[in-house]
């Protein structure tokens, strides 16, 4: 397995008492500080010199100390499609990349997380093999409202909200819903105060688009036009207005859809959105012919779209940046044929999202504090994880020792998820994760799994 570049400090302790750095990224910005740990939590944050004489201090120098990344959009796929990905491999990859909390999507596992029985199966399978903390989304499926009876039970059992697709999901056991069924579900979730997260592409727009053909990425892009996102997001804004439901747009790609988010915000509606590292890194113009590792839905769009997404980040129109880690086998990804019509649409990136975003952010003049807001605090706040995503007294001691000035080449052999397929392969990224701590204990992916199952 390839290692990240040399230059790490002296061996970091397994269970530090105090971590001191000239670059501690706190909720109010970056500054020198000492972070005191006790019983798995942050006990105090002081000036660097305010440390008792009898306490062991680990001095990180100019390495940055960040809160653990919270990734609220991960497809683990176990059980049922464990050959694609599983809890052990997904969470080891997460830990290696500075991600200390993930929330698992209700598909592509079999059974999907749409009932109490299915949630119990997920939790039983995950128990004992997770390297980071794991929570679960529930699902909204089907052409009628029979499944809605399960929503309250799942909510009471601690799922973090409910996911629905407005367009086909790609797996038969998780059918998409009509806007009418979603409206019925939204009335339920509004009464519960639960969050509903939505894959927002209009099936009518997709049906009218040209079909996908062959190895050309342009064909895939044309089949998923920006109008599919804008029309769907407009429908969600109307639904939020009608029901009062909290609705969240998953993996927003088309920057035009942000106009609908802005209008909804102006009306005081509870409609939010996220985006992903791949939409902020890659452009349609650079995708080689047959490179199905780049296929996802919605698709990667053009250079101007990427630039405008980055322009929107400081404005706070997007609540966060999450991976939408959705790996599969080389066969399902159709790596050999490069057939965009047949290939699974999903990008594997849970391990390298932090450096991917930092690489692009620093080139545009953004700070580590902004990246932490987008990748740690934002997703934690969306999911209601008050003890995650920030360095604050009382929060879980989920920490990342990060070298923002080091670079590395992404090699498939360094990836910990089950199949080392990623569009980032061969790309040089800035920012190296030197250590990950979960509740104050090292959890870099090669250590015994110490993750916990989370409930809302």
Automatic annotation (TrEMBL):
One of its GO terms (molecular function) is allantoinase activity. Its cofactor is Zn(2+). Residues 65-440 form the Amidohydrolase-related domain. Keywords: Hydrolase, Metal-binding, Purine metabolism, Zinc. Its EC number is 3.5.2.5. GO terms for cellular component: cytoplasm. GO terms for biological process: allantoin catabolic process; purine nucleobase catabolic process. InterPro entries: Allantoinase, Amidohydro-rel, DHOase/Allantoinase_Hydrolase, Dihydroorotase_CS, Metal-dep_hydrolase_composite, Metal_Hydrolase. Pathway: Nitrogen metabolism; (S)-allantoin degradation; allantoate from (S)-allantoin: step 1/1. Pfam families: Amidohydro_1 (PF01979). The keyword Transferase does not apply. Catalyzes the reversible cyclization of carbamoyl aspartate to dihydroorotate. Belongs to the metallo-dependent hydrolases superfamily. Allantoinase family. NCBIfam families: allantoinase (TIGR03178). Homotetramer. This is allantoinase. It comes from Frankia alni (strain DSM 45986 / CECT 9034 / ACN14a).
